[in-house]
Each structure stands twice: as C-alpha cells, then as structure tokens.
Amino acid sequence: MPNKQKSALIGALCAFAMIVTLGLSFILSSNLFQDGKSTLVLPSDTEQQGMIDEQTEDFAQQNESKIAQITVDPSNVQAVIASLSRPSSYSCSVTNTLYWDGGAGTLQCRQYARDGAYRVETLNGDGVITQVQLQYDGKIYAWDAGSSTYYSGQAGSFSPGEAAMLPTYETVCELPADQIQEAELTELSGQPMIRVTAVQDGRTAEYIVSTVTGLLYSASFSQEGTRTQFIQTSVLSLERPADNLFTLPGQNHTIFVDA
Known about the structure:
The chain is α+β, with helices and mostly antiparallel strands. It has one domain (3-258): Clam (outer membrane lipoprotein receptor (LolB), chain A). It contains 6 helices and 11 strands. It is globular and about 50 Å long. The protein starts with a helix and ends with a helix.
C-alpha cells in the first residue's frame, strides 16, 4: 500500500478510536445510553439556580422592561429569548441527571462561555475533570483529561449524547419553529422565567430560560412520556473565563486563533 494511503488510513483509525473511547467513557460514567430528549420536572426550592445578585441586577432590569408588555407564545418566543440581555461571558455548574429503567445517574459538569464558544468539563465523583469538550464556530473538539491529542469534527456531525455537550439558550433559539408546541412566561423559585416545550417524533424537550440572566436555567427531556434526562444549571461567575480554558492540548494559542 502506498505511504500516503497508509497515512490516511492510520489517521482515520485514530479518529475513530478517539470517538469510540469518548463514547464508552461517557456511557460508563453515566450508566446510560443517552437519547438526548425528555419532559420537564420543575426543580424544588432546594434546586434553585445560584445567582450573582450584584452582577445580574442590570440584566434583570433590562429584561423586565423588554418583556413587560409582551405575551409570550410559540410564535414569538424565540425572538423574545434572543432579545434578552445577558452576559457575554460566564461560568456555571451543571447537574446532568440521566434516567433509565429502575435507576438514575448524575454527571457533574462545569460549563464556561465566552466569545461564542463553550467549554464543558465532565467531572468524576471527586470533582476531578475526566473529559473536556469545546464547541466554537461550528466545530467541536473533545479529549480525555491529560491527553495530548484531541478529536475534532463538525458540531452537527454527531449528537449531543456523543459529544456530551449541554444545551444553552441558543439551543432554544435554533429549534425548528414547527417543533415548538408551547411557550409562556412563568415564575419559578421567585424568578420570572420563559418555558418552552418542543416535540419531535414522540420526544419532548422542555427548556426554562431565566429572564434575570437571559441564560438557560434548566432543561428536561422525555421519550413517550418517560423522563430520560434533567439538566439544572447554577451560575458561578460572570467573569471572563481564562484563555487556557479555550486552548487545545499541545497548542499554545486559543481556538479563536484557528477560526
């Protein structure tokens, strides 16, 4: 076999092995083949989202005036959410609970956002990072913690379950309009929220977006009425995440340079 063909074959096999390794690690850590959809179960008072009062006050006031005279419904909810004021940078903790017959498992994650990019760290029971995913400019990068190599591909080429990426308010804004069945302004844990329900092929996804921060508060998914996943976020900081969090293994510059 010519050397060029050998190199191409080896490269393809390495990429495939990376995908399989990440997929198996995610499945083993969650004890579930995630299907990526489910129905919202409202969090109790003990599951309230953490807030940074001083930092979010301005956003809350701006958004209150934006929604004061609006009746939120499926026809305008995406435009309303897109118009909310929100921080351009933030970090949050995420509790990602996955359900299956007879049990449930929880993944703890940290999510960082800046300049249109997202970083998600999956943590083990001791709070140690086990996997990292970056998503930016239509591309996704994934690697095991401590690895000197990474997998990269188009963000739309594999599902959120395979990538272990988490939904954001942008997920709601990008939904096909005909999938949105219900939308309303509501109140949860003393905060004004926007609730959105989307349905496709027997799968239901319900998202709650905070009008205080403009960010995703929670998301819940179900398949034919059976809950499969619940995601709860808690804002930790609105400070700009450091450059090193958006740097790929083996590189000395951020992903923004390559875009």
